[in-house]
Write a structure and sequence with these properties.
Elements lengths: L8 H4 L8 E4 L7 H8 L8 E5 L19 E5 L7 H6 L2 E3 L7 H6 L7 E6 L7 E3 L7 H7 L2 E6 L11 E3 L5 E4 L14 H12 L6 E4 L3 H8 L8 E2 L3 E3 L3 H5 L15 E3 L1 E3 L2 H7 L5 E3 L2 H4 L2 H4 L5 E6 L2 E3 L4 E2 L2 E2 L2 E2 L6 H10 L4 E5 L11 E2 L17 E4 L2 E4 L5 H10 L6 H12 L1 H4 L3
Parallel strand pairs: 1-2, 1-5, 2-3, 3-4, 5-7, 7-9, 10-11, 10-16, 12-14, 13-15, 16-21, 17-22, 21-23
Antiparallel strand pairs: 6-8, 17-18, 19-20, 23-24
C-alpha cells in the first residue's frame, strides 16, 4: 500500500470552489476540522452549499452564520439542534425528503454532490478505510462526489459491511486523531417505562427491530430482556441494544435479510459501543438507501417499527418534525420503516409519545398546530401508544379513531377532546359513546 501524504485541513479545503455542493458526514462523526478550515475561506468563496443529515457536535455549524450568508448556504435533511437558531434566522434551511431516498437523489443528480467531507478509520491491510459510525449518507456521497476530503482518525472504529473506501479514492487526507463525541444513554422516566412496557408486550419472539433514539426507545429495549431470538435491522444503533446483544436476546437468527448480523446505517452512543463495533463481524453498517428500503425491510418477518411523535390529531395524523411552523428535526427514517414494517408478514408499527408535554399541554389534539408537518399520514398509522394505553387505528373510521385516541389521552383533557370530536364528527361520534 502506498504511503499516505497528509495535508493540513487548510490545505485540504483548497479543493473546494465557489458554487460547489458539499455533503457532510453526520452522526457524531462530523469532520469539524475541515468545516472550520472551510469557514476560514469565506471571503474567497461564494454560493457553496453544505448538505448535512442527522448530526451531533458541540461546535455546531461554523459556516451557518449571518456574516457568511453570501459564501455558504447551510441545508439539512434532518435539522440538528445546532442548526435550529440558524433556521430561525434564515441562514439555514431544510430539505424535506425521506432519508432512504437521499442517496438516489445524489445518484441521479437531483441533489448535487461535488465534494464529500467525512471522517474515516485508518486503512486496513488492503488499504480500505471504514466510514466508521456514519455510513448513512457517506456511502452514496463518496460514490457520487468528484472530490473526497477525509479526516483520518484512529479513534474511528473499523465497522464491517460495504461502507468502506480505498485510500486511493481520497483526494485529500488530514490525520487528526481525536475521540469521537459520545452521547449518553437516556434513562427512561416512569412514564416512558410504562409506554415501553405496553409496546414490548406487543412484540413477539423472533421479531426484527427498528428502534429510534431517546427515553421511550430505551424503555422498550429494557422491557425486551425476556424475549428470544430478536433481530436488529435499524437506522441508528445505540448503546441500548448492547445488553440485548450481549445477553443473546438479539441473535438475528430468524431474520431473512443478513441473518446472524445486526444491521444499521449509523451509530450513536458511547466509546464502549464504538469499541464494540471495531472489526466486529456480527454488526454491519450499510448505505441508508439499503437499510431504509421498505422492500428490504419487509423481507424480515415480524418487522417492528418503533418511533416517536410530537403531536397526534383526532384522525391519526402524526407530526414528528416540527412544533407548528418551526422545524426541529426531519422525517428521518420514520416513513421508510413504517411502510416496510407494515408490509412485513406479522409486522407492526408503533408511534409512541407521552400524553402531555413538560408544560402540561396535551399531545393528542383536535387539530395539529398551524403549520405543523404531517410526517406519518392517517392512512398509514397503526399503533399509537401513551402511558395510558394503546390505540390501534388501522382500518378504523375517523370517529372511531377519535374515540380510541381520547381513551389514551391525559384524563384532564378528555372532556375537551370529546367536545371537539362531537363538533367535528357529530352524530357519528355520539353514537359510539
Amino acid at each position: 500500500m502506498a504511503n499516505i501524504i497528509y495535508q493540513t485541513p487548510q490545505e485540504a479545503v483548497q479543493l473546494v470552489h465557489s458554487g460547489d455542493t458539499i455533503v457532510i458526514q453526520g452522526s457524531t462523526s462530523v469532520p469539524m476540522a475541515l468545516l472550520k478550515a472551510l469557514t476560514q475561506r469565506a471571503a474567497e468563496l461564494r454560493d457553496v452549499k453544505l448538505i448535512s443529515g442527522f448530526a451531533i457536535h458541540p461546535e455546531g455549524a461554523p459556516y451557518a452564520k449571518k456574516e457568511y450568508i453570501d459564501s455558504f448556504r447551510a441545508l439539512s435533511i434532518f435539522v440538528p439542534n445546532y442548526l435550529r437558531e440558524a433556521m430561525r434566522e434564515g441562514t439555514a434551511d431544510t430539505i424535506p425528503v425521506f432519508l432512504g431516498e437521499v442517496p438516489s437523489l445524489f445518484r441521479n443528480g437531483q441533489l448535487g454532490c461535488d465534494v464529500m467531507m467525512l471522517q474515516v478509520s485508518t486503512p486496513d491491510e488492503n488499504g480500505y478505510c471504514s466510514f466508521g459510525i456514519s455510513a448513512d449518507l457517506a456511502y452514496s456521497g463518496c460514490e457520487c462526489a468528484k472530490v473526497v476530503i477525509a479526516q483520518m482518525n484512529s479513534y474511528i472504529p473499523h465497522t464491517q459491511g460495504p461502507a468502506k473506501i480505498h485510500v486511493s479514492r481520497l483526494d485529500a487526507v488530514c490525520r487528526i486523531d481525536e475521540p469521537l463525541i459520545e452521547v449518553p444513554t437516556p434513562t427512561p422516566t416512569d412514564i416512558e417505562t410504562r409506554i415501553g412496557n405496553y409496546i414490548a408486550a406487543e412484540i413477539p419472539d423472533g421479531a426484527t427491530l427498528q428502534i429510534g433514539v431517546g427515553g421511550i426507545p430505551n424503555a422498550v429495549i429494557n422491557a425486551l430482556r425476556d424475549h428470544q431470538h430478536l433481530g436488529l435491522h435499524t437506522e441508528a444503533i445505540t448503546d441500548g441494544v448492547l445488553p440485548l446483544i450481549e445477553a443473546g436476546v438479539i441473535d438475528n437468527s430468524q431474520k431473512k435479510v443478513l441473518p446472524g448480523k445486526s444491521v444499521g446505517s449509523l451509530v450513536l452512543g458511547s466509546k464502549k459501543l464504538y469499541d464494540y463495533l471495531d472489526y466486529n463481524p456480527t454488526v454491519e453498517l450499510h448505505d441508508v438507501a439499503y437499510t431504509n428500503d421498505p422492500q428490504v425491510i419487509r423481507q424480515n418477518p415480524k418487522a417492528m417499527s418503533i418511533n416517536s411523535a410530537i403531536e397526534v390529531d383526532l384522525t391519526g395524523q402524526i407530526c414528528a418534525d416540527s412544533i407548528g411552523e418551526t422545524v426541529i428535526s426531519g422525517v428521518g427514517g420514520q416513513h421508510d420503516f413504517f411502510y416496510g414494517a407494515s408490509l412485513s408478514e406479522g409486522g407492526k408499527c408503533f408511534l409512541a409519545l407521552t400524553s402531555k408535554t413538560q408544560k402540561g399541554q396535551s399531545k393528542i389534539v383536535p387539530r395539529l398546530a398551524p403549520g405543523a408537518g404531517v410526517v406519518t399520514t392517517r392512512f398509514q398509522v397503526q399503533y399509537i401508544v401513551t402511558e395510558h394505553g394503546i390505540a390501534y387505528l388501522r382500518n378504523l373510521p375517523l370517529a372511531d379513531r377519535a374515540k380510541a385516541l381520547i381513551r389514551i389521552a391525559d384524563p384532564s383533557v378528555r372532556e375537551d377532546l370529546e367536545r371537539a370530536a362531537v363538533e367535528r364528527f357529530g352524530i357519528g361520534f355520539l353514537r359510539l359513546k
